[in-house]
Amino acid sequence: MVPLLLLLLVSSHHQHGSEAESSHISKIHHSSVKEQNGVQNSQHERVMSVSEEGMIHSPDFPNTYPRNTVLVWRLVAISENARIQLTFDKRFGLEDAEDGICKYDYVEIEEPIGGMVLGRWCGSQAVPGPQLSKGNQIRIRFTSDEYFPSNPGFCIHYSLFLQQRSAEPEVPPVLPHTLQSIEELNEAVAGFSTVEELMKYLEPERWQLDMENLYKPTWHTLGKSFFQTKKGKGVVDLNLLREEVRLYSCTSRNFSVSLREELQRTDAIFWPSCLLVKRCGGNCACCAHRCYDCQCVPTKVCRKYHEVLMLRHRPGSHGLQKALTDVPLEHHEECGCVCRDGLD
C-alpha cells in the first residue's frame, strides 16, 4: 500500500507541475506578442491601426532583404470614412521580372474586401506610383524566394486621406412635363424603371386609371365591320422589354481574348490560348444625357492574374521550354456611356 500511495503522490505532483509549467509557457508566449504603434504580430499578417503617417519596409531596408520571406501587413484606418494613401520611396529594387511578370520576389497591394489586386511590382527600373485604398483598409504583401535577393528592397509611406464632402449641388426645379420640350421630356422618360413610375410622373392624379386603360380592349373600324384587339399584361410586358434593351446596352460582359494578341507575345505559345475576361460592350444609342455620339467605356478596371502554361523555344536547343506562368489581364467591372467629344 505504501508504494502505491507514494506513486499517486508523485503522479499528482508531476501533473500539477506540468500545469504550472504550461501556464508559465503560455504567459511567456503571450508576453512575446508585442504591440507597438498599433502593430500586432501574427503568424499570418500584421494588423496596423492607421491614425497618422508612418512607413513599412522590407527587412534590412535599404540593404539586401533576406531569402524565403513572406510578410503581410493589413492597414486599417481609424475612421470608416477615411482612405489610406500609399507612396513608394524612390529607392526601390527587387528581383527582376521574368517575361514581364513578377513571379519570384515582389510587393503586392490588394483590397482586403473582395481581394482585388491593385498591383504587383518587382525589378528596379520604375518606382510604383501612389496608391489609394477604396475603403478604410488595404493589404500589402511582400514575398521573396530562395534565389537572388536584391537591394534596397522597398519602403512604403502611408497616411490618412480624409474624404471631403462636397457641397450638395443645387438641383434645378423640374418643370411639369406639359411645359417641357420634347428633348427634355425624352430625357426624363428614359430615367424611369417601370411603366408605373412613368405614369405616376405623367399623371400624378389619375395614373391608376391610365394604367387600366393601357390594357383595355380597343375597337377599330374597317369598312362597315368592327373588330376588337385584345391587350393584356401577359401578352406584352413593357417592363421586360425595357430590361432586354438594358441587357444589350453598355454593360460588362464576357469576351474571349487571345493571349498572344493581348500580351503582344510572338515568342511564346500559351495553353489555353484564349481566356475569358470582362470587357465593356454593347451600344449607347439611348444615352440619358443629350449626346448624339456616345461610346461605351470602362469606368472601373482591375487587373487579375491567370495561371497558364507557356511554351517557348529554348535557346540553343531543339526542345520547348515549358513553364507555368501568371499572366495579367485587364477586366472591366463597370461600364458607362460617355460622349465621344468628352474623350478627345
UniProtKB/TrEMBL annotation:
Residues 44-161 form the CUB domain. Its main location: secreted. GO terms for biological process: platelet-derived growth factor receptor signaling pathway; positive regulation of cell division; positive regulation of cell migration; positive regulation of cell population proliferation; positive regulation of ERK1 and ERK2 cascade; positive regulation of phosphatidylinositol 3-kinase/protein kinase B signal transduction. SUPFAM superfamilies: Cystine-knot cytokines, Spermadhesin, CUB domain. GO terms for cellular component: extracellular space; membrane. PROSITE patterns: CUB, PDGF_2. It is found in: Secreted. Residues 19-44 are annotated as: Disordered. GO terms for molecular function: growth factor activity; platelet-derived growth factor receptor binding. Pfam families: CUB, PDGF. InterPro entries: CUB_dom, Cystine-knot_cytokine, PDGF/VEGF_dom, Sperma_CUB_dom_sf. Residues 260-337 form the Platelet-derived growth factor (PDGF) family profile domain. Gene3D superfamilies: Cystine-knot cytokines, Spermadhesin, CUB domain. SMART domains: CUB (SM00042). Keywords: Cleavage on pair of basic residues, Developmental protein, Disulfide bond, Glycoprotein, Growth factor, Mitogen, Secreted, Signal. It comes from the Eukaryota. Residues 1-20 form the signal peptide. Belongs to the PDGF/VEGF growth factor family. This is Platelet-derived growth factor C. It comes from Chanos chanos (Milkfish).
